[in-house]
Amino acid sequence: MISLHGVSKTYNEGRPNQVTALHGIDLAIAPGVTVFMGPSGSGKTTLLSLVGCMARPTTGRITLDGEVISSLPERFLTDLRRRRFGFVFQRFNLIRGLSVLENVMLPAAPLGEERAVVEARALARLESLGLAGKARMPVEVLSGGETQRAAIARAMVNDAPVLIADEPTANLDTALTHRFLDIVAALRAEGKTVILTSHDPRIIAAAPVTAVVEMQDGTVLEVRS
Amino acid sequence: MSLRPATPVLSALAALLALAGVEGTHARLTAPREAARLADEAQLVRALGLTDLALFTEARYTRHPALADLATAFQDNPLSFEHFPSGSLIAPPEHFGPTALGFAPEDLR
Amino acid sequence: MSALNRQRALLDFTVAALARRRIKNLALVAVFATVVFLLASAMFFASSLRREAEATLAGAPDLIVQNLSLGRQAMIDAADLPKIAAIRGVATAEGRLWGYYYDRISGANYTVMVPSAADLVPPPGEVIVGEAVPRVRDFKWQGTPLFLSRHEGDLVRFDIARTLGSDVALISADLVLMNEVDFRSFFNVPAGKFTDLAVTVRNPRELSTVVEKASAALPDARFVTREDIARTYQKLFDWREGVMVALAFVAMLAFAIFAAEKATGLSAEEAREIGILKAIGWDTRDVIAMKLWEGGLVSGGAFLLGTVIAYAHVFWAGAPLFASVLKGWAVIYPDFRLTPAIDALQLGTLLLLTTLPYAAATVVPVWRTAAADPDAVMR
After folding, report:
1. Of the candidates A92, A206, A194, which has an alpha carbon nearest to the alpha carbon of residue A149?
2. ipTM of the assembly?
3. Which of A185, A223, C127, C313 has the most CB within a 10 Å radius?
4. Same domain assignment for residues C224 and C90
5. Residue A9 contacts C, CB cutoff 8 Å
6. Closest chain C residue to B32 measured between Cα atoms?
7. Residue that is last in its domain, among C210, C230, C250
């Protein structure tokens, strides 16, 4: 359970290019599948990075299971991020030149686990996403859908309870979008929380989605569950 | 489990370290023999009254740098700079006689 | 265990990332190792030679007295000998006879000398020669006599009584030892003249007093003490001077530019990768540790490679790269073996000089990127 209380976010504060992306957001995100929707520039991505502890709010506070996380020092924030959240970026952000398996294992590197354990977990994740055969290939040879699934595998390799995905279907065709929704449904069945941003009506209407947060100009217009 | 990327690099470093160890052992093992050789040399130096290493035999004054006088390199012409390669490997002797004129006012009278 | 696993995992990533530009990074290590190799070779070679000089020349005479005339060394009168011998504190004083002989056949300079120790004085008509003399004269068989010619039509035959071994080549390679009578007649040195005087003192601490008194007795003479000799050789291959150091410095400078170009110019691609690593759960410390591994692997590996090859080059192969530099235009170059001598302080300095700047150049530019909030990759 993630709660936001009066959260706002200003970039480049005090400089001429100052931008306020979020204005006093109050929001509670329940387990299940939540979608932030709205036009571009509405603050979806900023909200997503605040929820995922990638950045800190300028004002307001964020709590995770009742614990205030918005004021934690960087070290704790990193620790929290790596144990609680898995990220899939809009541009996937796999590291070029490394193999799929190496990419998937990256989030586990700082944890100090046995390599064999991590590798087995990563391979299991890739297998469940249908990428077992491509584990040793460099990420450049993957197709768009495969790249996304590799990114999902990387996000889930530490068994984080929350998956965060920014515009996951922006670059996918209909078939691949359905495949992505199947994965989301499977993750939900595993008991994971999934938070997405999207302006794709296919996603918003999809079966596994439990809540839709509609946003505009840095404020929440409506929450539908 | 697949080969970890760092393994070949670490193996190469370990091999280099082992080689360094071999070299260190070589230095240690040859030390007594070399000490004996140096003692032989010192003995010959004492017996012959030698003053220099026979490293630079290209010119007469470079053969005995410790004894060479500073004028030798320029003996033919003050402008003919010292031009042997060994001149760049070893400095001319620092100590070439008294470096200050020693006289008192009464010496001038 | 967990810390070890973490470091190993970071190291694995570092190597995998470096392997993406395998040729470029291997070339970098090779260039770096070459620079270290040159510097370390010069260092090993110089400290070994200096040690050799120090150990062997400890037996040199305490004091050499030269006669100066017209600003050059000239023969010294035997009459000066008793003046020196009479000084209190002088143990022995003897006239030395030595000189140079230019061998027109081989183009080499020999040092011709009358030994002071009786057991090294060859019988009349015979010489004891250094290791290089038979070599440059290309003697084919044992007992080949040495013919020396002072001018056209002149030929003096000397039989070789003995050859000094290559164990002592570094101090004796070009020596031709004769007895005094042969020397005086061969070089036409009149009786009563010596090349210089060799003096030993009873108590080395009194040497400066002896020199003071001797310079009062022989005001025109030049005095070279054993300390002066030692000082001359301490400066052999000094860090501050010499061709090798200049070359190495240029190489170092070129490498510094290369390394700075490679390491400090954090490309947009690299900055983005660091952002990704942060976003997927890497800490600033993880990124820094990974970069430290990168700098450490490249510079530490190059240092190790360079020094290990340098040792083999200098002490196993006999420093062939320096032989030509040292030999210069000389015909005689002693066939000597070097005693392994490693100056730990110099080696440590070289280690710091090579690894620290490179590691710093790798890590410092990353610092700011690594400390920034990772949400930049979301935008």
Report:
1. A92
2. 0.90
3. C127
4. yes
5. no
6. C339
7. C230
What C241-250 contacts at long range (C-beta under 8 Å, 24+ apart), as own/partner pairs, is: C241/B88, C241/B91, C242/B88, C242/B89, C243/B85, C243/B88, C243/B89, C243/C325, C244/B89, C244/C38, C244/C42, C244/C322, C244/C325, C245/C42, C247/C38, C248/C35, C248/C38, C248/C39, C248/C42
pLDDT digits (tens, 9 = 90+) for A63-112: 988 889 888 888 888 888 888 999 999 888 999 999 999 999 999 999 98
* Domain boundaries of chain B, sorted by first residue: 7-50, 51-94
C172 touches chain B (CB under 8 A): yes
First-to-last C-alpha distance (Å) of chain C: 37
List the structure tokens of B107. Answer: 């010496």
C67 and C211 together in one domain: yes
Q: Is residue C322 within a helix (H) or strand (E), and if so which, with residue range?
A: helix C320-327
C121 — pLDDT class (breaks 50, 70, 90): very high
Using the beta-carbon criterion (under 8 Å), do A113 and C10 form an inter-chain contact? no
Domain span at residue C163 reads 62-230
**Do C73 and C48 share a structural domain?**
no
Touching chains, B (3+ CB pairs < 8 A) = A, C
pLDDT at B75: 53
> How many domains is chain C built from?
2
The answer to whether residue B6 neighbours chain A at the CB level (below 8 Å) is no
Same domain, C153 and C290: no
Alpha helices (H) along B1-109: 6-48, 60-63, 105-108
> How high is the pLDDT of residue A169?
86
Among A194, A102, A201, A94, CA closest to A148? A94
Residue closest to C31 by CA, chosen among C196, C258, C342: C258
User: What are the residues whose beta carbons fall under 8 Å from the beta carbon of C309, sequence distance 6 or more?
Assistant: C33, C37
Interface test with C, best of B28, B33, B50, B88 (most C CBs within 10 A): B50
